[in-house]
Amino acid sequence: MHFVPSPAAPPDLETLRPPCGELRSDRRVPRETVHKSATAEVLLTDAKHLGGDRFAVAARWHRDHFIGPLDGRSFDPVLLAETARQAAIHVSHRFLGIPFEQPFVLGEIAAQLDGALPPLRDAVLDVRCRRTAGHPRRACLELNARVWAEGRPVGRARVRWEAMEPRRYAVLRKRGAAQPPAGAGAADADAVPLPPARAGLRLDRDVLVAADAGRPDRWWLRLDPGHPVLFDHPSDHIPGMALVEAFRQASGAAAVAGGTIRPESVRDVAALAVEFTSFGEHDLPVAVSAESAEAHEGAAAFQLAATQGDRALARARVRWAAPERTGCRTGAAC
To answer: Which of 18, 129, 154, 195 gets the highest tally of CB atoms within 10 A of its CB?
Structure first.
């Protein structure tokens, strides 16, 4: 695997403070505007167009976040990525005129943290959202965001996606589902799900990978269709955010097993970037492989791939926070 998605885009040099504008934080935006069925899974509270391609988006992070960590700590780029994903959907519908009936196809999602996210806090995303070059009849978009909380920058995120006409989406899905990938056999019957604590989680339902008994560098995707977050609404394919979280868990297990991070640091991921290349089908096993990547400033890093038979579903790079950035925390945050 040679492709490594680039990290989230750096902030504009003129963006030295949170975006201005009055943003409400006392209620969530309508769930339909972020493609959620349950209001409790909505992270956004408001948004405002600041002119041109710039928007301010408010979010509120609650205690359970996206998938609740074991100890309540908030070094969580997956939460940041999900916040940016919801922002991309909301801005598309509210300000860019994308119809609600158009399916959204996720192409890439990336998030990078400057430090631990403050728990139970409001956040503001300074967003730049634009259509990317391509066919004028295709709505291909990219969102880059600088994220602020408690008056300080806490991270960056990027999302690339396409809003498709329903007819084109149906043709695309029918073509892919009708041609199952070669070599898509059964998952390893001896695969053992990670104990929740080894993934830094509280609940067994949140563990998305099972270890392959014969290959220490491979895991099998383990999904619960009744999961209240990952399967908040029906989907005709494996949700992209399920693969994002599975990449974090598999890379954490690999890093602990290889001795590159301590078990208590398994959730201290500082950056991740995922590129999606194919839809994953619910009825076929998905293998997740991991290999060590070049370290960055003393921090462990892994490259990963999710495959279904011979079909690549997604590729990722995950990097942990450097030890000095995690050792200063007391309780929930620095």
So the answer is: 129
